[in-house]
Amino acid sequence: QVQLVESGGGLVQAGGSLRLACAASGGTFSSHAVGWFRQPPGKEREFVASITWSAGDPYYGDSAKGRFTISRDKAKNTVYLQMNSLKPEDTAVYHCATQRHLLDDFGSWGQGTQVTVSS
Q1: Strand partners, 35
Q2: pLDDT tens digit string along 6-39?
Q3: CA distances from 85 to 15, 79, 95, 117 (A)
Q4: What is the mean predicted confidence (pLDDT) over 99-113?
Q5: φ, ψ (nearest 5 deg) of residue 90
C-alpha cells in the first residue's frame, strides 16, 4: 500500500520561502490527482492546491494563488509545493493526499509537516 510522506516544513520568517515535498513510499501515485491541504491551529482543514498526476494541471485555493506553485516529478514519485512570500497566517500543518478518480474525495493522508511563519 502506498504511503504518503511529507517533508520540507520548518520555521521561516515572514516573506520567506519553503518547498514542501510529498513522496509516495512503497509504490507510485496511481491516482487522478495529488493535493496539498493545511490545518491552522484551532481551525478547519483547508484546500491549498492540487495537481493532476497524468497531465500536471494545477489548481489553487484562494490562499495559494500568486504565491504557491504545485508541481510533480513523475520519475521521483513526488509532488512539491513551492511556497513564497510566506505570511504568519500560513502557519499550519500541511498534509498531502491523493484523489483516486475525478470527483472522489481526497484520501490516504500523510502524517503532515509543520510550517511556522514568524512575523
Answers
A1: 50, 97
A2: 999 999 999 999 999 999 988 788 789 999 999 9
A3: 4, 20, 20, 10
A4: 91
A5: -85, -5
CA distance 53 to 99: 10
Residues in CB range of 87: below 8 A, 6 or more apart: 14, 117
Report the side by side order of strands in the sheet with 58-60: 10-13, 113-118, 92-99, 33-39, 46-52, 58-60
Question: Is-contact 48 33, C-beta < 8 A?
Answer: no
Q: Name the grid cell of 79.
A: 509532488
C-alpha cell at 75: 520519475
CB–CB of 46/64 below 8 Å? Answer: no
**C-beta of residue 111 within 8 angstroms of C-beta of residue 93:** no
- Give the pLDDT mean for 88-99: 97
Kindly state the cell numbers that stand for 92.
499550519
Instruction: Kindly state the average pLDDT of the residues 88-107.
Output: 94
